[in-house]
Amino acid sequence: MNSDWLFTQTGYDPEDLNGLGNRFMLANGYMGYRGVLEEYGKKQLVALNLGGVYDRNGDKWRETVNAPDPMAITLTRGDQAFSVLKQSPLTHTMTLDCQHAKVSRHTVFQAPEGTVTITSERFLSAAATHYGALQYHVEADFAGDFTLRAGIDHDVWDINGPHLFHYAQTVQDDTFCVFARTGEKCVPIAVWQKQFLDAPAESSIERATTGLFRNYQLHLTANVPVTLTVFFGVSETERDDNAIALAMRGVKASDFATWQAAHEAVWAKWWAQSDIAIDGPVDDQRALRYSLYQLLAIAPHGVADQSIPARGLSGQTYKGAIFWDTEMFMLPFFLATDAETARSLVGYRIRGLQAAKQKAASYGFQGAFYAWESQENGFDATSDFNVTDVFTKRPMRTYFRDKQVHISGAIALSIWQTAQWLNDPKLLLSGGAEVILECARFYLDYVKQGLLDDTIVCDDVIGPDEYHERVNNNAYTNKIIEETWRAALAVIAWLQKQAPTALKTMLDQLHYAALPQLIAASLPKLKQPLVKDGVIAQFDGYFGLEDTTVEAVRSRLLDPREYWGGAYGVASQTQVIKQADVMMMLALFPQDYSPETHQQNYAYYEPRTEHGSSLSWSMYAIEAARLGLGDAAHDFFVKTATVDLTGQSKHWAGSIYIGGTHPAANGGAWLVAMRGFAGMQVRDGQLEFKNQLPPQWRAMRFHVGYHGRHYSVTIKAGQEQPEVEEN
């Protein structure tokens, strides 16, 4: 196996449970399984997370549901448990094979008579996403009697649970099933399992209070391995439940190879479309493929109108909600590699339009105000108290739900970008145009107090930099408003050429007739940011704040888990910012600013940016690449591509756990490679590339789709013109 596709960790660190769970996560778009060991339980953060299935327990935060664990296995001999929870192993390795999307372990334990080796391999099927399988091998270098216990453990880890109630356990034709219902909406969750042991053994079924297990009393012959094969299926509908029950009853031990081959064939197809091969440091290649693996694993392939949560399928963090991360950091990858999935991502937002209009109306506005933390059907799960003060233990009022108005523009622009990239007017006519126009209408209403003035201002917002809340005229937000208005006019003009009759019907039915004129009149009046010595003020009054360093602000912390923002955060009255804000604006709209503006703002803002969000590094990397700062660009690329491999990210906001994987950073790694190092951009309807490779890379090769055409691109160091070939 080519090591460029493998991530292996040697040794066992009991303090690294969160990191292991993220690094070795498996997913298939429907469910995600954290990188845990078979002997783990809820205290070790075992989670089989179900995307799009939500529940609320009492007045706690609403979050996704973790299903019962179908891969719970323990091995004992008398009083000795061969478990990393009970004894330190002689050797231990875990490996994620990104190419084939499977995780394996190899652990050697000491016993009085000799050594015992446990190896396992598991995958969640990409070919049939409700299914997964595991093979667990046991071998001893001595003869002896052992007890192998395997089954479904329903004592699951939850952040704000429990979420599953009314448990029932059944055994039918050697097929196990644990059934439960969620508390809020009584969604039926069923986990089916069937086991095969390749050695004769006495067995018994154990109906434990925490699940359904089979106990095998087996005799091991020295140096002869025994294999337990486990198949399982998960459902949350009666239709899927019946299909899974039938499949489990018919499955055979030999089907493991068949299931795995089908799974790997799907992954081979995905990689053929999306892989980026680099001639450079092997660690860079491995980190980039790891990032792409994470995106491919959590994407809703073949499912209409679904999206990707901000923490993927790694657990319940951030309520399992969809943020602007998806549109700004992940969607571009799928646009270039998987048009069907891209349509699904924006289709989710089109489906959520009514919820966005209801949210806008609840604040007294027309148009569409999209959810900051979006759950099913666009429901906004954002709490008014997102952070807890580490000193008083009291919840702190935050304004993410109320004032992050740039979310609507991110969605509107993503739909417009998708329609243009795919050259797909049907996307606009099937709801996309309505979303864009309703977002434009929302912004007109949000700034309506200034529509009769010479200058239109946008007050009381939060930009990407969340350390400064409720500011006026955030430059990024005003730019997003401007571009949303321009997109609305462009959509109307485009449809006027492509589908004039359908456009007229839509404008009449939705009362948009006056909208174009109002937008056109408002655009030139929208307030532009203050520019001082070439530097764009992040918001009104920014330059009047204390100008200090990130290190100085960090030194003021009394507790490492303090929140830097809010009314009294250590950064809130300083120019130190959480993440790329003005720089994100420049990275997204590079052609609208001079080279000098890019350079001066990079030089000013980078030292003042804490990079407290995993979204930040990729924006700075793209800007550094465009400015010819190859080493800096490479450094930021490494940070964004390895955030889950190193574990060097924030796990707490105040006392709130925010750990999990970082798919936006994974998407950011792709953005750096493509927009940064490959210089990819669309100009006048044409896809262009520019050699901006960092000095550490000698070449990169990739495939990209645009306007229904597919291209192979090679960029080599020292070669000014990239090699572009249409397939």
Automatic annotation (TrEMBL):
InterPro entries xrefs = 6-hairpin_glycosidase_sf, 6hp_glycosidase-like_sf, Gal_mutarotase_sf_dom, GH65_N, Glyco_hydro_65_C, Glyco_hydro_65_M, Glyco_hydro_65_N, Malt_Pase/Glycosyl_Hdrlase
Q: Which residues form the Glycoside hydrolase family 65 C-terminal domain?
A: 680-719
- Keyword Transferase found: yes
- A Pfam family hit: Glyco_hydro_65C
Q: From which residue to which does the signal peptide run? A: none
What does the UniProt keyword field contain?
Glycosyltransferase, Hydrolase, Transferase
Residues covered by the Glycoside hydrolase family 65 N-terminal domain: 8-234
Q: Which residues cross the membrane?
A: none
Q: Which GO terms describe its molecular function?
A: hydrolase activity
Task: List residues of the Glycoside hydrolase family 65 central catalytic domain.
Answer: 289-670
- Give the family from UniProt: Belongs to the glycosyl hydrolase 65 family.
What protein am I looking at? Glycosyl hydrolase family 65 protein
The source organism is Lacticaseibacillus yichunensis
